[in-house]
Amino acid sequence: MYLPDGYTTLEKISENDDHILYDLFFGPNHPGMHGNFGYVLDMVGTEILKVRPNAGQLHRGFEKAMENKLWAQNISLIPRVCVPDPDPNEVAYCQAVEAIMGVDIPMRAKYIRSIVLEMSRLGSFLMGMGGVAGALGHYTTMYLMMIDRDLILDLFEALTGARVYHIYNIPGGVRRDIPEGWTDKLLALCDRLDQKLPEWDRLLYENPVVQDRLKGLGYISASEAMASGITGPSLRACGVAADVRIDTPYAAYGEIEVGINLSGGGDALARAVQVRLDFEEAVRIIRRLVAALPGGDFKLDVGNLAKLRVPAGDAYSKVESSKGEFGYYVVSNGGLKPYRVSVRGPSMPAGMYLCHKHLRGMKIDDVAVWMASFAICPPDIDR
Predict the structure, then answer these.
(1) Which site in 21, 274, 313, 381 is 20 to 30 Å from 187, CA atoms measured?
(2) Does the pLDDT of residue 18 top 50, yes or no?
(3) Are 154 and 169 in contact (CB under 8 A)?
(4) pLDDT score for 3
(5) For 91-102, what is the mean pLDDT?
(6) What is the mean pLDDT of residues 128-146?
(7) Residue 123's beta-bridge partner residues?
(8) What is the pLDDT of residue 32?
(9) What Å distances lie between residue 34 and 54, 97, 191, 377, CA to CA?
(10) pTM for the model
(11) Which CATH superfamily hosts domain 95-305?
């Protein structure tokens, strides 16, 4: 297989009798790869012998770039750290800035933030479940889920003016209040999503082909998951009851009930089922948030955001994203811009570390399933 410039994506390394060792670049040019990321695979036939992650194709230096932008300008940059689920980055960053400033945002702003976070979780889960289906060749399921994700993006557009990068959370709260009638549309969408779950179960989770392909694939024990830094649904799929929304509540999560369900099992099937359980709980959480949504202000008056000065200090803020824990460590020297920002993302452990152990012995058609089951986000690795 040759690219236009003559670069070989499949190279013969050695040949011994009837055995040939191949070096294959499984990267963005492959339809099964998630984003601008790649693995260089040493293979015998279709069996993987060695894995070398090939990152850096999406590197934008997010963390360093934040040092050169005003506090509010970074809100337009950080959603790109994880495109399918951008809002946790906004909230984690804003919470860290607010902690340094020593301010507490209005309760209505906390509820609105939580609603936005759960909507972002639903949209990301739909893309993730659809990605698993697509990696297994079940494109009808993927297309159906993307249709419903588009309906979530419609509501984001009505609320924030944007479909993907919302740039909605700001230090002190959110940019604008909820428009009239918007929550009614959100609840109607929740009804639709609940009604679609049985259909997705039949198409994906109860599908014998899916069961056969995912069961036992990429097994991760609870101890290995915690030792390597796995968080979120992938950790809960190992039977560990860990959720930032419950363990260290933020926004409005301390004001409402947040349930936690565990699939257990630790393999790709358990991770897929865990996303299904978390999806259903996210719909419930949205209904609870809307029912308890208070009145009042939606942001604090912190002055002109373009001239915002954050007092000297540092803070770490973490949130539960659809892919795991997103944390922002922010340092201020009292100026108009951050002195340092460091991001803790959930994709590094599986995407860059565990792959060396667990992809060995798999077949080439399992690579995309591995990526999809962990919901690996390449911009998070290349930040």
Answers:
(1) 274
(2) yes
(3) no
(4) 37
(5) 97
(6) 90
(7) none
(8) 62
(9) 13, 32, 30, 7
(10) 0.92
(11) Cytochrome-c3 Hydrogenase, chain B (1.10.645.10)
